[in-house]
Structures are given as C-alpha cells and as structure tokens.
Amino acid sequence: MSGWPALVAEGPTLISELLPRCTFPPSGTDLDCAVSGGADSLALLALATAAGCQVTAIHVDHGLRPESAAEADVVAGAAERLGARFIGRKVSLAPGPNLEARARAARFAVLPEGVATGHTMDDQAETILLNLLRGAGSDGLAGMVPGWRHPLLGLRRCETNAACTASGLVPVHDASNDDPAFLRNRVRHELLPLCTDVAGRDPVPLLARQAGVLRDEVALLDALAEAGAPDPRDARVLAGLPRPLARRAVRHWLRDTGPGEHPPSLAEVERVLAVADGEAVATEISGGRRVRRSRGRLNVDSGPSDSVAR
Questions:
Q1: CA dihedral sign of residues 181, 183, 185, 189
Q2: How many helices (H) and strands (E) does the chain have?
Q3: First to last CA, the chain
Q4: DSSP state string for 133-155
Q5: According to the CATH classification, is domain 11-120+155-178 in 3.40.50.2000?
Q6: In 188-265, which residue ranges form alpha helices assigned H by DSSP?
C-alpha cells in the first residue's frame, strides 16, 4: 500500500529474535487478532504473520474519538501490507460512568471467541497490580495466561514498539491511554514508576514471574478441590474439606452456574460455606439468587427467601 515506509534492514532479524518468546499457534493456523492500531496490536499482527499464522486483523471502532475512523484505515493498511485479512467492526457507547469497562465489554462482544490480543509483560504487571487493588485472590494475582490468546506476554512494550519500527509500521497514539481518569493509566504512569523507584529495580519481570508461580499453585488447588468435592453441592463434603479447597470448590460452582459477568466475591463464598456448615439455612448471592441447604445439599434459587443469612 502506497505511503507506508519500506521495511528496515533490521526488521527480519529483530522479528526472528522476538518470535521464540511469543506463544503463537503452529504455522498455518487460522488466528483472529484484535488490532486497535496501537504499537502492541500492530506488533501482534506483524509477529503473527511472521510466525506463519493465517491472520485476520479485526479492528473495533468505539466511535468515542473523531480520529477512530482513521485508525481503522491504519489497521487495514497494515493488514494489506503484511498479507493478512481485515475486518472492521463498529460499536456504540453512551456517555456515562465505567466507560473503560463498558468499552471493553462492547469490544469483546463483537470479537470472535478466542481472539488474540497484544497484551505485553507490562500489561501483565499492570493487571496484577489492578487486581491487587481491587482485592482479588490468587486467581486475579495469577494474571493473564500465556498462550494463543495472549501470545506477547513474554515481550516488553519497548519491544513491540521496536517490532513496529522494524516492520515499517507507524502506530497510532490513543490519547485516552494518558488520561488519569482511568485507573489503569494511573497504575501505568504513577504506581509502576513509584515501585521502580522504591525497589531500585524494574518490577515488571518480578510481577510476571510471581504470576507464573501463582498460576501453578492455582492449578494445583483447583485439582485438589475438584478431587475433594466432585459434587460441590454436597454440604457434608464441603464442610469436611480444608477451607482453602472448600472456597475454591464453591467459587467455581457459583461461577459456572451464575450469569458469568463477575466471579463471586469472598464474602459470598464464605456465606455459602456457612450454609454448608449448617450455620444458616440460606444466603443471598449476586444476580438476585440465593443458595439454600435442603437434605444435605446446596441449591441455587433465583428468588429471595425469608430464611436468608446476610
């Protein structure tokens, strides 16, 4: 496509050096990639095609900024240059609170399941700190799982910028990424630099490594909880489990039977365990539901009850 700078000489060498630290599927695999036009997602597009994937670049225009339509053209041009397919989607968002979360939900609602994103190790560190500030347990502190959906978690943000330069791609700059009204931006521009100053070292690799350790421990606890309570509705079995395993069994049960928007809180899990222990007959949980105990088994109902532990 005319107007794009030529590939620089260092391009193939840099890309080949970065690829072993990525987690792309085998060459020839169809791979949908979410590409906003920023450096991380353009690097995802370049690296995925270099890995031999049959890539479809999908851009979602939220219509929140005047320049968003032009960003779709940038992604379309990059896809053409790299031999990938391009799909453009549009969503509409009303003004109001929680814009970042609503934009993310709207974006993933029109993206195919299993779409690859350009999250880097820096994003992983930010996510871990955000989850910590929100009171997440070990699942949240384990961060994003490396794999086809997050193939760039082994790369730093400076490296995705370099990959764009090496591939002759010019990223767009989303000014909302500098807006301190969004919590992630404050973590990125204020908290992480402060952590660096306090620790006297870069905390990003440390946080990413810690997340990897926690993922292994979470997997072990999940396996033990499933083995200990194959039927988490059995109140007697739950009451006899070590508390950490009982919590995990209940959390997974509530998540699998719930609306799927948010995982159950620790307070909800503890109230359900109180029902399993016989300390309460029933308790309310999110989604207008309640958990009750009857004949030694836990059941989820969709309405409130007069016999509810709060």
A1: positive
A2: 13, 6
A3: 63
A4: HTT--HHHHT-PPPSSSSTTTTS
A5: no
A6: 192-199, 203-228, 235-240, 243-257
Q: Starting at the edge strand that comes first in sequence, how are the strands of the sheet with 85-90 ordered?
A: 30-34, 54-61, 85-90
> Tell me, what amino acid is at 8?
V
- Opening angle at CA 247, ends 244 and 253, nearest 5: 145
Neighbours of 124 (CB within 10 A): 23
Phi, psi of 101 (to 5 degrees): -65, -40
- Per residue in 82-140, pLDDT tens? 999 999 998 877 666 676 777 777 788 889 999 999 999 999 999 999 999 988 889 89
pTM for the model: 0.85
d(CA 226, CA 240): 14
If you search the block for the tokens 């353009």, which residue do you land on?
A: 42
CA distances from 251 to 56, 219, 245 (A): 36, 14, 10
Report which DSSP code applies to 96: S
